[in-house]
Amino acid sequence: MMQKFRKLSLESQLFFSFMAVSVCLLLLSLSITLSSTITRQRQEIDKNISALAAYVASMDSVVSMLENGYPDGSANEALDSLSENFPDLNVIAIYNTTGLRFYHTNRKETGETFVGGEEEAILKGSQPYITIGYGTNGSQRRAFHSIRNSDGAIIGFVIASVFNTYISEQVHEVFPTYLLAAMIMLLVSILLSHGLVSLLRDSLMGHHPTELLDLYLRQDTVLNALEEGLVATDSTGSVVYANQAAESLFHVLPEPPEDPPSVSPDDGTSGQEQTKPLMEGRTFRDFFPESQADRVLASGTPSYHRACTCENRRLLVSEIPVDTQTEHPVILTIINDQTEMETVMDELTGAKAMLDTLRAFNHEFLNKLHVILGYLQTGQTEEAINFIINSNLVSSQSIRQTADCLRVSKICALVIGKMMHAAELGILLTVSPDSRCLEKDLLLPVENYITIVGNLLENAIEELSAGSPEIREITLGIYCDPGCNIITCEDTGRGIRPDLIDRIYEKGVSSKGTNRGTGLFLIKQLVDSGNGEISIETEPGEGTCFTITFTERKHTPCTM
What is the pTM of this model? Predict the structure, then answer.
């Protein structure tokens, strides 16, 4: 039966469901009403026969008839008249204390004595009562009442009864009325059920419920097939919809059921079990604290392709207000996971940077061979040996490490060139292994970074080559994150004299002599134009460290 019901269209299922509910309520109400009517009717009959029995027992002619010991014609006439005036009453009977009959409505069809045994209680002084007894005319309801003389002594009893067949006839007379009412109510239920289904169809813009269900299932399947995470939130920030990509992105995965239910392909879902997304009804910020849906809703202005980080994943987030003019506005959040794409791009960028580095390294290597050959041909063996020793300061490993850290080819080539130049002077120039630089994260044009890094390294190389410190090392650090870039350059030179610290960025001011002091002046100009900051840590005889920071206001403070 259930399988046949499931094969019906959704519209037919709704119609028959409404009809089933209506019929159940109809039968329940009719049963209660009919039962109440029958009970009330029986109570009314019991009340009437009890009152009539009491009235007969109080008649003077009835008392006189029992005291005289023989039937009285005038009393019989009065009782016959009384019986005729009460159509609901079938029998009136009067007996003395020995059960001898003095009056009976149907006296020609009954015996002369009462043999039921139900009169014992009333003859002993009991209050009037009603019983169900059996007589010549079948089952009947009897009201017993004692007859007393003027002294209060019981001299007989009265029975007023109604045949149960008469009660049944009264009930049967009610049935047609209730049956007619049931038919009318059933017709009204059919019309209401049809009207509700029609109203539902109109509210669905003419679509049948089955069509709408199929449309929803197809749409849900399409949305779950997207790689982008889709999350719809209401004005309170609660999730009203989330596709599977969004739940997977935020690690909200459903647990497999212990006993998966089997779904029949004929139940209207095309064999697919639809489960409610686990994010629905929960606050979106619990999963994604970077959400700005409340701001977008307040301003009504969409936000597109906002870069942010969540659980070490790089995301592009677009937040679009929908139905803002209605009572229930919705914010649609579209999330693109850029982690894997950026990893692939980073690998491609690294490979390109490595090729550029190898080309530069090969060029420099050929130049070094020419220098060594020149020293040997001119007999300067000692100079050739020193040149080879200094060249070992730049190893292939340091070249690879630099190329891995600095993925901007122009900056990488500049640093490697400076490393070669420093090595020729016996200076070890290295790049911090935790440095990171991608072109998409730069906050200034590449040329500005080349000018800043080139001048910082050139100043450090000149400082170390001019002096004779025991340790001749330069460490460069470049840290580029979205919204924050930091450049550090530390050397082991003589440091900056205290009297020059306040004027070190002025043009022409330098610790290296006259006609110098241009590099830091250019760096200061670029830092100021990029809304950056520059700081110096120096100690005479120990060295100097320059730190340059560029940030965007919408991002958090930089960390290395």
Answer: 0.41
